[in-house]
């Protein structure tokens, strides 16, 4: 598939250091704690197909029955396209997905950087390496 | 024809076939005889390095993947020739402090990090070229949005608005089989690269595009004597022909600055 200079704004630190042509962006470590990750289960309610980061909104049911919406940043659109991923695929079929993400350093608990997505049908999408996890 | 002559004739035919097979493909040319640069091109930068993997069950790994089975590590490369060009421009000594200050404040000052146009030469080679005998159109699919440049091949073409601009006024001509594009009349709102690499409105960018088979060699040079100690020759980029049509770039919507907790950033030479 085609690349495009469309940058790579939000590369993971590892990827960014792996290429001298990395496009730029704010450091992930300036926004997220890249030494940790957390996992939640919820339903993807919206995807913003925008640069420099696609945005995934996930509704997570709380113990009291209310719904809390998390916002996850992810890779730029060009990288998604190159991996064969589409907005529709990320929105999914309304069934719960399992999200693994870096937590935000800004103190907002519902904000994270998307690392891994496990779909209800068992398929997995790794966007960036999960700290401490084996490489798939 | 005896057997010996027949063998000699066959060997000659085979030799000619080998030579034909090894000969480089002829340069694709336009009706006016100029090299044909039309097409979509992987521009040798950005996410070319990305090697996503799709597994048998439909799972996808975009980055940080283990090497795919059967993909042994590449053998050590032969020593490369001395690189032509440099990653960053060299500034006049009296401006070193300004560059350093902008570099420290890149998080807040780099226009690209606020979805502003990248300017030239930071935008890099075009992603698509549309060519005729009078003009050449460069199309870009950039993280900051879609951009285009019109490169007239005849002198005297005027824009309706000739104000200084992000991508300047381009003028093209052919030097043999090389397209040379000289661009002036820039505003000073873009950076040449990251790390505080500002420029003045005196910037002139010269690009040289030479088709080599299924590739185009893109060379670029930035001249800005008001701020640079010497012309900056960028590292060459090879554009690779692609059969995948350009897509409409997604809009650029900055959503990060509000929750940055420090001024860190990572390299962005492009």
Question: Summary?
Answer:
Helices cover 12% and strands 33% of the residues of chain A. By secondary structure, chain A is mainly beta. In chain A, strands 2-3-4-6-5 form a 5-stranded mixed β-barrel.
Structural account:
- The complex is a heterodimer of chains A (136) and B (270).
- Chain A contains 3 helices and 7 strands, in the order αββββααβββ.
- Chain A is mainly β and 136 residues long.
- Chain A has a 5-stranded mixed barrel.
- Chain B has 270 residues and is α+β, with helices and mostly antiparallel strands.
- Chain B has a domain at 26-45 and 85-155 and 167-246: Lipocalin.
- Helix content of chain B is 12%, strand content 26%.
- In chain B, strands 1, 4, 5, 6, 7, 8, 9, 10, 11 and 12 form a 10-stranded antiparallel sheet that branches. Chain B has a two-stranded antiparallel ribbon with strand order 2-3.
- In chain B, a hairpin with an 8-residue loop joins strand 10 (215-223) and strand 11 (232-233).
- The relative contact order of chain B is 0.19.
How many domains of chain A, as an integer?
A: 1
Q: From the coordinates shown, what is the CATH architecture of the domain at 26-45 and 85-155 and 167-246 in chain B?
A: Beta Barrel
* Structural class assignment of chain B: alpha+beta
| Uncertain runs of chain A | 1-24
Query: What is the correct CATH architecture of chain A?
Result: Beta Barrel
Biggest sheet record of chain B: 10 strands, antiparallel
Radius of gyration computed on alpha carbons of chain A:
14 Å
What would you call the structural class of chain A? mainly beta
Task: Predict the CATH topology of chain A.
Answer: OB fold (Dihydrolipoamide Acetyltransferase, E2P)
């Amino acid at each position: 598939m085609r690349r495009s200079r469309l940058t790579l704004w939000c590369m993971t630190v590892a990827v960014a250091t792996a290429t001298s042509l990395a496009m730029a962006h704010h450091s992930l470590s300036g926004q997220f704690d890249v030494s940790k990750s957390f996992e939640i289960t919820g339903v993807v309610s919206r995807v913003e197909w925008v640069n420099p980061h696609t945005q995934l909104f996930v509704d997570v049911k709380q113990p009291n029955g209310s719904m809390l919406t998390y916002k996850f940043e992810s890779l730029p659109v060009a990288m998604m396209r190159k991996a064969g991923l589409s907005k529709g695929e990320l929105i999914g079929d309304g069934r719960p997905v399992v999200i693994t993400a870096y937590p935000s350093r800004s103190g907002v608990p519902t904000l994270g950087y998307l690392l891994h997505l496990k779909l209800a049908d068992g398929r997995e999408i790794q966007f960036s390496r999960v700290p401490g996890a084996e490489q798939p | 024809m005896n057997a010996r002559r027949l063998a000699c004739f066959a060997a000659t035919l085979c030799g000619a076939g080998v030579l034909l097979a090894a000969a480089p493909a002829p340069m694709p040319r336009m009706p006016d005889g100029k090299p044909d640069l039309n097409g979509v091109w992987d521009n040798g930068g950005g996410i070319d390095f990305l090697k996503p993997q799709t597994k048998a069950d439909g799972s996808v790994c975009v980055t940080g993947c283990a090497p795919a089975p059967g993909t042994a590590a590449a053998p050590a490369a032969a020593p490369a020739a001395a690189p032509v060009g440099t990653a960053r421009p060299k500034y006049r000594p009296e401006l070193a402090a300004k560059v350093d200050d902008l570099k420290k404040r890149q998080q807040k000052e780099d226009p690209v990090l606020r979805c502003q146009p990248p300017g030239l030469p930071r935008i890099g080679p075009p992603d698509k070229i549309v060519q005729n005998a009078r003009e050449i159109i460069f199309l870009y699919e950039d993280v900051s949005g879609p951009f285009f440049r019109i490169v007239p091949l005849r002198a005297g073409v005027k824009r309706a608005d000739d104000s200084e601009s992000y991508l300047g006024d381009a003028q093209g001509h052919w030097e043999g089989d090389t397209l040379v594009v000289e661009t002036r009349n820039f505003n000073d709102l873009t950076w040449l690269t990251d790390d505080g690499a500002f420029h003045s409105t005196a910037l002139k960018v010269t690009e040289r595009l030479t088709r080599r088979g299924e590739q185009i060699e893109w060379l670029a040079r930035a001249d800005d004597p008001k701020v640079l100690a010497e012309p900056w020759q960028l590292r060459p980029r090879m554009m690779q022909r692609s059969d995948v049509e350009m897509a409409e770039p997604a809009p650029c919507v900055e959503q990060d600055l509000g929750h940055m907790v420090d001024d860190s950033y990572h390299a962005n030479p492009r």
